Amino acid sequence: EVQKLNQQLEEKNGEIQQMINQPPYEKEREILRLQKSLAEREKAQATSDVLCRSLTDETHQLQRKLASTAEMCQHLAKCLEEKQRKEKGNSDDQIATESSNQVVLDNETSLQTLICKLQDENKMLKQKVAHV
């Protein structure tokens, strides 16, 4: 391993000697090439940073939406339970209860669907953030 490292060191020293022995215009050309490469990398990094911030903001926004949707679902579920308890004693109101329950269940189903979609989108955004 020491021999391998010494060989790499010799190669680097050879590269340095080549650069030192190059005419000045070639040195300048190499410097310009390296500066251009650096500028491209900095630009790519800046773009990546902007995309990461954007995805992070969008992820936070979706998490807030998901939390508020979950809260709404819990509220609707509590309302449904209260209505069911109140209507257990009223057999005359059974038809009205069934229709209101159906509306609440439809709302709950649509909210569950929305929650699933938001969770899927959140996973997708997390994957994008990880990829970036």
From TrEMBL:
The keyword Coiled coil is assigned to this record: yes
Any single Gene Ontology cellular-component annotation: cytoplasm
Secretion signal span: none
Keywords, sorted A to Z: Coiled coil
Keyword Coiled coil belongs to the record: yes
Region (Disordered): 1-25
Source superkingdom: Eukaryota
Biological processes, Gene Ontology terms: cellular response to lipopolysaccharide; positive regulation of canonical NF-kappaB signal transduction; regulation of transcription by RNA polymerase II; toll-like receptor 2 signaling pathway; toll-like receptor 3 signaling pathway
Basic and acidic residues composition bias: residue spans: 1-14
Listed PANTHER family: TNFAIP3-INTERACTING PROTEIN 2 (PTHR31882:SF6), TNFAIP3-INTERACTING PROTEIN COILED COIL FAMILY MEMBER (PTHR31882)
Name the record gives this protein: TNIP2 protein
Organism of this sequence: Asarcornis scutulata
Gene, per the UniProt record: Tnip2
